[in-house]
């Protein structure tokens, strides 16, 4: 096992990355690139599917574990991204006056690859992440990769780092696409050059609670987003401002923060990095997207799954006062998947909710993860098997 991966590395180091990339595509059988004369080096005797990185798979959290490769693609003034390529994972060089460093012109995405029992990797709706990034790029005055370019980059990054994809049931390979203004600017303006970069890290549970219910704190001093702002896109500039609220809540023993709308300080928006749903009887509700919350690939998928299971789903304005009167609350997002909420504290009043084996969130979780892992038939064409 060690020998084969060392052989694989040696091969990569000895080749120019461009030729490595086309060969990787040919070997894994999804890219259309012609097989190069080096194709033999990728055959199973050199790189086997059973090859795993040296990781303690039983103790994965959500910390970064650096992997082997990252993918990079640049866009100059014409607004079109050139052919991207894989390179060794590592630090990148940036101009001190890069738009992303000075004015926060940047977006991120998150998607996951699940390793199936048959050894293949399964991606979940990567095209939806591509669309989410496209919408964000439009808001942030950035060019964005095409959907095909985005999905291809995610596939290449996942496959190149396949040995870091946890065994089935132990976690996932989290894939992080970034879009950044990397060209130099001084006067406030869109950057003259952009970089799309994708890296990956094996992850387990997002919250240290694991699958235990979350205890949320309703924040009414700090806000996440405001009307007309950029709360509806995954721009990096939405996140540093909530660190203060998260830190305050964590210091008081809470798992995360539930934000209210900044205008009325009354209506539910979302949690720091995930969407929120409430359940009352047979009706599931989630805040409607009105410009201040992310529409979320997981949120949209859960709405469809719940409807398919026969539940009524409402996207509407939800007042914080309703929280005293609901059966269940849960959060959704790529990183958290579906996290049950055990309690919400608002103005020093703690409200508790149903969780556990018979909760609706557990049922939705099993269905979603079943599809993502390839254990439940995917009737919607949401998953993409790559090898
Ligand atoms: C990423 C994120 C979500 C979840 O979106 P998914 O597309 O489901 O991963 C929700 N809210 C915020 C603020 C986020 O950053």
Automatic annotation (TrEMBL):
It is an enzyme of class 2 (transferase). It comes from the Eukaryota. Gene3D superfamilies: 3.30.470.10, D-amino Acid Aminotransferase, subunit A, domain 2. It holds the Pfam family Aminotran_4. The keyword Transferase applies. Its EC number is 2.6.1.42. The keyword Endoplasmic reticulum does not apply. Its cofactor is pyridoxal 5'-phosphate. This is Branched-chain-amino-acid aminotransferase. It comes from Hevea brasiliensis (Para rubber tree).
């Amino acid at each position: 096992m060690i020998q084969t991966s060392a052989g694989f590395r040696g091969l990569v180091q000895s080749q120019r990355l461009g030729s490595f990339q086309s060969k990787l595509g040919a070997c894994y059988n999804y890219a259309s690139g012609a097989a190069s004369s080096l194709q033999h080096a990728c055959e199973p005797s050199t790189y086997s599917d059973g090859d795993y990185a040296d990781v303690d798979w039983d103790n994965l959290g959500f910390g970064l574990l650096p992997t082997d490769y990252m993918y990079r693609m640049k866009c100059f003034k014409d607004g079109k991204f050139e052919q991207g390529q894989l390179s060794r994972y590592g630090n990148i060089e940036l101009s001190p006056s890069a738009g992303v460093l000075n004015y926060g012109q940047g977006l991120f995405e998150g998607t996951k690859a699940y390793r199936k029992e048959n050894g293949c990797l399964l991606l979940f709706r990567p095209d939806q992440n591509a669309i989410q990034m496209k919408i964000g790029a439009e808001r942030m005055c950035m060019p964005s990769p095409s959907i095909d370019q985005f999905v291809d980059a995610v596939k290449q990054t996942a496959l190149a780092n396949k040995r870091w994809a946890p065994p089935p049931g132990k976690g996932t390979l989290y894939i992080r696409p970034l879009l950044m203004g990397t060209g130099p600017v001084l006067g406030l303006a869109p950057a003259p050059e952009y970089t799309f970069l994708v890296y990956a890290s094996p992850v387990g549970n997002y919250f240290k609670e694991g699958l235990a219910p979350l205890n949320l704190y309703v924040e009414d001093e700090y806000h996440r987003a405001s009307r007309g702002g950029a709360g509806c896109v995954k721009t990096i500039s939405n996140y540093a401002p909530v660190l203060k609220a998260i830190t305050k809540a964590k210091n008081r023993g809470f798992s995360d923060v539930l934000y209210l709308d900044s205008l009325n300080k009354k209506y539910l928006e979302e949690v720091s990095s995930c969407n929120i749903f409430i359940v009352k009887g047979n009706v599931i509700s989630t805040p409607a997207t009105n410009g201040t919350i992310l529409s979320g690939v997981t949120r949209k998928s859960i709405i469809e799954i719940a409807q398919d299971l026969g539940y009524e789903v409402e996207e509407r304005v939800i007042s914080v006062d309703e929280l005293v009167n609901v059966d269940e609350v849960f959060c959704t997002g790529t990183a958290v998947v579906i996290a049950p909420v055990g309690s919400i504290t608002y103005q020093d009043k703690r409200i508790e909710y149903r969780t556990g084996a018979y909760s609706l969130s557990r049922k939705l979780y099993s269905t979603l993860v079943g599809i993502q892992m390839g254990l439940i038939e995917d009737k919607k064409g949401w998953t993409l098997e790559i090898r």
